[in-house]
Hints:
501 residues; alpha/beta; Hexokinase, domain 1; Nucleotidyltransferase, domain 5; five-stranded mixed beta sheet; 15 helices; 40% helix; 15% strand; globular
Amino acid sequence: MVGLGPKKPPSRKGSMADVPQDLITQINRLEELFTVPAKKLKAISDHFVDELTKGLTVEGGSIPMNPTWCMAFPDGNETGTFLALDMGGTNLRVCEITLLEEKGEFDIIQSKYKMPEELKTGTSEELWGYIADCLQQFIEYHHQEEELDELPLGFTFSYPATQDYIDHGVLQRWTKGFDIEGVEGNDVVPPFEAALAERGVPIRLTALVNDTTGTLIASAYTDTEMKIGCIFGTGCNAAYMENVGSIPKLAHMNLDPELPMAINCEWGAFDNEHQILPRTTYDIIIDKESPRPGQQSFEKMIAGLYLGEIFRLVLVDLHESLECKIFEGQDLGKLKKPYSLDAGFLSAVEEDPFENLSETEDMFRNKLGIVCNKPELELIRRLAELIGTRAARLSACGVAAICKKKGWDKAHVGADGSVFNKYPHFKQRGAQALKEILDWPAHKGKGKNDPVEILPAEDGSGVGAALIAALTLKRVQQGQNAGIRNPDSMLKCSAAQKKAK
Length: 501
């Protein structure tokens, strides 16, 4: 069959022999839809560079390029005890991190709390109250009977926010399924602090941190070649260190142009204008039916929240197609439920090691009540590969764009998130795409020791948030208060831990 040879695992060679022509025709059509060739990857990356630059200007663009007021990499000498709070789309994690005298060493204790689904569409008071309750439980459990001064907190708030100060953040828009009224356009810190004060929780918010910035800083703590932090998970994003002189929208502050400034790109919004990304009919449906149509266009093609839904939409479409019918005569009630399949389901399909795809067959029968024949299983497997490969290749466009913009021929990229860590072949496919975009020699693009190498990140939402809190206190103690709203209160709370050196 044309176009399938080298893309299939070697052990599956010839597996299309018994596939009917109508299914082969549909597989060919899907390959055309979801394959992104090198020429297109380069065009996307070049447009990406322009959009990154635009986001740093006064006019701005779809990519917000938010200054974070994290203005240094750690040097390994940071010390003290800090709390870190990570508000993710699924869980809430609270950590207590002690940065030790030994360079680059730390101790960590942590607890995880489930984020109730109803909170995502509830009220602001319910959200902040629940988070404050979790922090209170954590403090009471780990510090029973102790008299505590205020502990400094790095709050990983992984949603697009404008920050005029490191200890505040105005939510630009909800992502990851959140849709709470009255929060967008407002500073999230005062209601959070009010919920803490109402409960008498001894915590001082020191830094509001995006998970990508935390990933960048935590990874740089152990690797001096680290230049970009990325998240490829439920959502997608990146952060890197820019010089202030290259951020025209900060020119009015008259800062030293050589000062570093971590930029939270929020690149999930890349190409909201639909100028360059190769969107399919299925991508358009996902966008139209999402809580925020017209937003997060890049994210909706590559992030874990959407991969299973793209897969589901294609299968339902093929079932209802006149040219090709799959799952004939069967009840597709479960498959027709939006977001009933997640990226983990696709991962399992791609990882099925058996020639007859028996694990995939079992999953469809047990989870969806669908009995698949052999040709249908082959189509399912190929579709999963196409969607997963497209996500990895498009993800590489953003990494390549930052490297192009900064003129970096070599860089380490710290990546975190469920898709990066768990989705099969994601790293290798991304490395191959970087090779094609950046024109590496033939022997590169394997993922290991490449000029731009994407590596598993350190704990950005825990250790990274704590380090950024430590770096912020260090700046306050040195009298460098640019981008800090309440330096006096931060100095007071630093009595609760060893001074950052």
